[in-house]
Every structure is written in structure tokens, then in C-alpha cells.
Design goal:
The chain is mostly helical and about 400 residues long. The protein is built from 18 helices and four strands. Helices cover about 80% and strands about 5% of the residues. A hairpin with a 2-residue loop joins strand 3 and strand 4.
Length: about 400
Amino acid sequence: MSMIANLQYGWTLFVTPIDDKFGWGRAAIQVAFTIFVLTETWLVPIEGYLVDKYGPRVVILVSGALVGLSWTLNAFADSLTLLYVAAAIGGIGAGAVYGTCLGNALKWFPDRRGLASGLTAMGFGAGSALTIVPISALIQSRGYEATFLLFGLAQGLVILSLGWFMQAPRLVHGAAPAPIGKEILPTVKSRQYSPLEVLRTPVFWVMYAMFVLMATGGLMATAQLGPIARDFQIADTPVTLLSITLPALTFALAIDRVLNGVTRPFFGWVSDQIGREQTMFLAFSLEGFGIVLLSVYGDNPTAFVLLTGLVFFAWGEIYSLFPATCTDAYGRRYATSNYGLLYTAKGTAALLVPVTSLMAAAPGGWRNVFIAAAAMNFAAALLAMLILRPLRLKMQAAVRE
């Protein structure tokens, strides 16, 4: 999971250098990011089916090769077409790794789904934290092409090496609970929904709408954080926090990656204690307030660093709360495939990312984008408590009857 993090969260560092070399324009370059997210998300149901049918190992091994190939092609891309092809290949590889690892966690730890999915997703959220500074420095010293090549090959090789150790628990109907460390786990006695059955339930579509609303604001920030800082003219302004001094953009990216990772097990654990929808309401509301504050104070370098950290902290939990809620509702036998269907909402949200560049160019600039994103977060928070929770409780009650 950590080895695919840079494909999404490190992308913002490459946008300006690519544009400086070829002059294709930010909007055209960001289409590659949209293609990456679309292939990373919309193909996960198919990849999840392959995992549920053939096991995680073979899927991970193929994915590692695709991840390495993607950034290798980026290193040599001299046209938008090749850049887009590389993005599609990377999306397929990253999505397969993401869906496989998260689905496996949901199957192995049914009693702590929130925490297990959060710890696993933390690899994707915080995986790039330690490499943001080296990537930025390597781009400055050797160019973005060498950076793509070196990190692409390294990330692919690590996935290929670790893929050999992946295995899923065998879910045996009626089996007694196995001792810790054993492979066989009991099947949960609740109804196990197949992917086609999931698509026929209102609960799924409410979660899908909420996922789109929440993912839109977060994807806008992860893809556009570099351009935002440069448009605010604070990207290279030194910021000192805790006796550490770094340029505002570099500092923000490093802190954001850490908080975006920590939030996933934290809110996953909270949801295990107080409930999924209650936790969604708290986290989504916090995200909305953070974005509003960023729209007001974001042109201050220190405030930019702190507030983007808050935004990422209140956003990353969607990648632990939604898979846990989905598996709570539909069972764990088809957990990888079912969450794969829900995860396509991230791809739908990605379609709006290029639009944010156009909105930023209009009167009002980035502040208009921030206000729209905050409104989406508040809407998702209300949907969690007023619509999703009653529907999910009603569905579970019907199954028990």
C-alpha cells in the first residue's frame, strides 16, 4: 500500500515541471491524474472478483509489474498520449493493490473492521510521507524524468517482492473460531450479499453518493495542492514549526501525508466504539469546517500548512469508514468485490478534478472551489445520520426477521 501512495499523493510535485518542459498546460496534464484515478477505482470490482476467485497473490504480482511500468513510461513520455497511457497502467496496478490489501484486511479481522481497514489504508495515506522530501529534492537536482524512473522501479520491485507473502483466510461455513495465527476463520452468520444483490439496495447508493461528495474535496486538494500554493504565492515561503523549517508547500505535503495516514486507523477505531455513521458525521463536519478556514486563511504560509493538515486529517478516514460500513452491511465473503463497487465513487469524483482548475481561473479563484467542497462535506455528514443510518438499521432488521 505504501508503494502505491506516490502514484496519487506525489503527483502534484510533477505537474509544474512537466508543464515547464512541454507547455501543455495544467488542465491538460491533470487529465492524466483523472485517468489514473478512474482506472484505479472503476476497475477494482473486476480486480476484486479475481481476488475472491483466485486469491490475492497472483493479482498483487501482476500489479507490481504495472506499477513499475507506469512511472517508467512517465520518465520518457514526450506526448500527452503517452502520459495518459502511463496513468492508465498505473491506475490499474494501484487499484489492484489497494483493493486486494483492503479486502484482505476486512476478511482477516471481522471483529475490528474499522481499525483493520484503517491500519491497512494508512499505508496508502501516509506511505508517501517519508518520500515527499526526497522526491522534491531529486526533481530539483536531477529532473522529474530521473525521479519517475528511479522511484517507479523501486516501488514496483517492493510490491513484487512482498506479493509472494499475500494469502487470504479460508471462510468455512460452520467452522469453529480458529486460534490466533491459524488460517481458517468462521463465516459470519449474517447474510452474505453478492455484488449484484448489493447494487439493488438503497443503502449502497446512499453510501455511493456520500463517497462522491467526500472524495471530491479531498482529491481536489491532493491533485492541486502545488498549484494552489503557487497561486497563493506561498509555495517557497519558509515556515518554521517545532524547530523545523521547510518551504510551505514541502512542509504541507509532508505533514498532510502523515495526518492522512494516521486518521484512517484513528477514526476506524472510533467507529468500532461509537458506530460508523456517528463517526462519519463528526469527521465529515470537521472536514467541512477545515476547508472553510482554508479558504479564508490559506494565503498565510503557516496557516496553509496547519489547515491543509487538518483537511487531510478529516478526509482520509473515508478509506476506513466506508469499507468497514460496506462489509458490516453486506458481509465479508464478497468483501473485496463489494467494496470495489463502492470504491468506484472515487473515480466518479475524480471527473470533477479538472473542473477545479477552470473554477480557480474564474473570479474568486480557489476560494470558490473551497466553499463548494465544504458544502459537499456538510451534505455528506447530514446524509450519514439522517438517511444512511436509518436505512442500514432497517435492512439489518429485515435480515434478522
